Automatic annotation (TrEMBL):
Record organism: Streptomyces violaceusniger (strain Tu 4113)
Annotated protein name in UniProt: Aminoglycoside phosphotransferase
UniProt cross-references to InterPro entries, sorted A to Z: Kinase-like_dom_sf (IPR011009)
Span list, region Disordered: 276-321
Length: 321
């Protein structure tokens, strides 16, 4: 999960928006409910009591007039298209409104009590993951991959531009194949030891093996867990499709480091890319930004390259209550 925004105006605006959503949907925050913030204050979520019982209310925002419908409607589309076999909180109600500068969407979900495997997308403490968890992960990836969609998590033009920039040349920028993915399959969006998957707004087509590659890349700070991911998802990652997917994901995360995100992952990601490519990769081509300077730059993320109004969230899924 991300922390409260550095900008007090953003904090006040989003708390006001969440209060509006509570009133509109006849819910009330649960007593002593903790706030769960998304990436740079773009979402705010709390556990609430709805007329039907305990629920989870997530409010997202985007600048008015700049909504990308693909990502804005991702959670609704996932509710309709993703198989019931995939464990996730069910979306109950959606409520939209706007003011002069911002458009808001409130999403009311059923509440699950499972805890995210990590409070942040990049793993820093090894979680306990039973064999049943890995079996469920493999089944989920299998069930998502063939879902028909015209949505895209990653687009070919981004790969053609960014892969040579961050990985050097020669580099093949054409995926062997495309499959449907969750799109943000990192540790803050996955519960353990019982798997539930949060944050579906970015699902869509990506290079085959993309979700497994995301999970592996965000495990690199804990080498033993990264090795476990490679072992448990070997049939996906240890293939030409999986190798390409890793390079695509590494490119996206390295892109985000130039804007101050995921800085701890930069070195292990480059080492992993060099292992896959069998050659050195170039040093950063642009200045990195210290985390304290984030509020002074335009928000950018791997998803922002694809036009998302809600860039990749730092685990704004449900928190355990």
């Amino acid at each position: 999960m991300s922390t409260e925004p550095n900008d007090p105006k953003t904090t006040v605006r989003m708390r006001t928006a969440h209060g509006h959503a509570c009133a509109a949907l006849a819910t009330r925050p649960e007593q002593e409910a903790g706030e769960t913030w998304g990436w740079r204050g773009r979402t705010l979520s709390l556990s609430v009591i709805a007329p039907s019982g305990p629920a989870w209310l997530r409010v997202g925002c985007a600048p008015s007039g700049e909504i990308n419908a693909t990502f804005w409607n991702g959670s609704v589309a996932a509710q309709q298209a993703i198989p019931e076999s995939v464990p996730r909180p069910r979306l109950r109600v959606v409520h939209d409104w706007n003011d002069e500068q911002w458009t808001y969407r409130a999403e009311l979900y059923e509440r699950v009590t499972a805890r995210p495997a990590s409070p942040t997308s990049a793993l820093t403490i090894a979680p306990e993951l039973p064999a049943t968890w890995w079996r469920t992960v493999r089944a989920v990836l299998h069930d998502i991959a063939p879902v028909p969609t015209d949505r895209f998590t990653v687009r070919q033009p981004f790969l053609e531009r960014a892969m040579p920039q961050f990985l050097g040349t020669p580099i093949d920028t054409t995926p062997p194949s495309w499959s449907t993915t969750h799109g943000d399959f990192h540790w803050a969006n996955l519960c353990a030891p019982e798997l539930h998957i949060f944050d579906w707004e970015g699902w869509g087509l990506a290079p085959t093996g993309y979700d497994a590659a995301v999970l592996h890349s965000y495990s690199l700070l804990i080498p033993s867990v990264a090795a476990c991911v490679r072992r448990e998802l070997n049939d996906v990652l240890n293939t030409p499709e999986g190798w390409f997917a890793e390079l695509a994901v590494i490119t996206q995360i390295l892109h985000s480091t130039t804007h101050g995100d995921n800085l701890d992952l930069a070195k292990p990601l480059r080492r992993r890319a060099e292992h896959l490519l069998g050659r050195p990769v170039p040093p950063p081509s642009g200045p990195t930004v210290a985390p304290g300077a984030l509020e002074r730059i335009t928000p950018t993320s791997p998803r922002a390259e694809c036009g998302s109004p809600l860039p990749a969230q730092q685990g704004d899924g449900q928190a355990a209550t």
